């Protein structure tokens, strides 16, 4: 009789890796390419809608850069200081989002650990 595989919940790092892989997979599977860089203000406003308190989010060093891995895509990069569930600001944290046809594709990512910080740096740093 074949042994059954043991199933377990992924730890925090594995869960983050799974999220990143799912985001990348959704981008790779998407079709159509943008003509040029999208509007920074429009994409930043779309990013804000993913936050718990979008009206009080503070941004700095925000830019849209060509995606380093996927042709005809862009990456929204910057730092955001958003309110947490207790109402306090978290401090400026690096973030990124994949952009296609002027809209965010997949889930925007805010650096919450070293692995996510490295992923963002790899796509956003010159």
Please, could you describe this protein's structure?
This protein is of the alpha+beta class. The protein has one domain. It is 30% helix and 26% strand. The protein has helices at residues 12-29, 40-48, 114-124; strands spanning 58-66, 74-81, 93-100, 103-110. Strands 1-2-3-4 form a four-stranded antiparallel sheet, with helices on both faces. A hairpin with a 7-residue loop joins strand 1 and strand 2. It is globular. The mean pLDDT is 80.
User: Given the C-alpha coordinates, what overall shape results?
Assistant: globular
- Average pLDDT confidence is 80
**What are the segments in which pLDDT stays under 50 over at least 5 consecutive residues?**
none
Helix content: 25-40%
Order of helices and strands: HHEEEEH
- Number of DSSP helices? 3
| Secondary-structure class | alpha+beta
In percent terms, what proportion of residues is strand?
25-35%
**From the alpha-carbon coordinates, what is the Rg to the nearest angstrom?**
16 Å
Kindly state the number of beta strands. Answer: 4
Note the gap between the termini.
Answer: 55 Å
Output the strand order for the largest sheet. 1-2-3-4
**What characterizes the major β-sheet?**
4 strands, antiparallel
Count of domains: 1
